[in-house]
Amino acid sequence: MELNILWFWIIGALFIGYFVLDGFDFGVGMSLPFLGRDDLDRRVIINTIGPVWDLNETWLIVAGAALFAAFPEWYATLFSGFYLALLVILLALILRGVSFEYRHQRPEAAWKKRFDLMIVIGSAVPALLWGVAFANIVQGVQLDAGHNYTGSFFDLLNPYALLGGLTTLLLFFTHGVVFISLKTEGDIRQRAQKLAVKAGIVTIVVAATFLLWTTLAFGSLPTALFAAGAAVSLIVSFLANLRGSEGWAFTLMAATIALAVLALFASLFPDVMPASNDAANSLTIENASSTPYTLQVMSWTALFAMPVIFLYQGWTYWVLRQRVSRTTVSAAVETTVETAVH
């Protein structure tokens, strides 16, 4: 396999890692109005991702850096053409991160309510816009002969792209709610399981529609196989959640997201950014990639660095595998208050 083709799939794998891991972070944030009946509930929900949310976001940094180094033309066209959408995503991520850190700094209910709202917005906006962005990449956008995007921001808000955004929004929401049921105890866990069932029904319908549209309009045989796998995995995850097997439900939701991303990348191949106005202007794996020497250096670096990243993140999740409950969070809050007093 040529190195530029290998790196096309490596970048796909990096985005899979980002969407699977930060995806449930987004879902947890969006679930606050549905599962957080009081401040202690909301603390429990936020604490399920408290130790890992910033670690999960590093996958986006790695994916962006790999895209810049391996496919500089793709990176330049994407970030210049989609700059407004990507800026909104960045601002939403900043808003969410600040809210996680600041909501507990003051005891007033109004203070916490404002930051809780920011967490919801900062989670929902990227969940929606990432789907819009990737759907537009698959569908193709207007590019000139110099591979510059010639459309506007509102051209990106077309029916197919909006359906893609709704699909990622619902997938991440369901993924996050299942994660909450996996990481909590008692009443919150039960309510999360019920919400995952309700959200799962809508998600199955919307995701199936988007994947079918993708396969029929832009796909190939690999696209169809990955899309079918994603659909089956999503349905089995829904059934596992019905039976209360949240571990299997979460694993299968992760597989659903991974297979859906693979379906999108399979639809792109061998392009990286198709031109909807003239196929001759499309960016391909060949004309968008770096030099063979650059890709060779990157390959050796990834060979040694990626296993370390996998082992470290796996170890982190293993150490922090315990469930969170109202009792443990309440005890931690009381300890913090007593320490501050003394």
TrEMBL record:
It comes from the Bacteria. GO terms for cellular component: cytochrome complex; plasma membrane. Keywords: Cell membrane, Electron transport, Heme, Iron, Membrane, Metal-binding, Transmembrane, Transmembrane helix, Transport. The gene is cydB. One of its GO terms (biological process) is aerobic electron transport chain. GO terms for molecular function: electron transfer activity; metal ion binding; oxidoreductase activity, acting on diphenols and related substances as donors, oxygen as acceptor. PANTHER family: CYTOCHROME BD-I UBIQUINOL OXIDASE SUBUNIT 2, CYTOCHROME BD2 SUBUNIT II. Belongs to the cytochrome ubiquinol oxidase subunit 2 family. The chain crosses the membrane at residues 6-32, 74-95, 115-139, 159-183, 195-218, 224-242, 249-269, 297-320. It comes from Cryobacterium cheniae. Pfam families: Cyt_bd_oxida_II (PF02322). This is Cytochrome d ubiquinol oxidase subunit II. It is found in: Cell membrane.
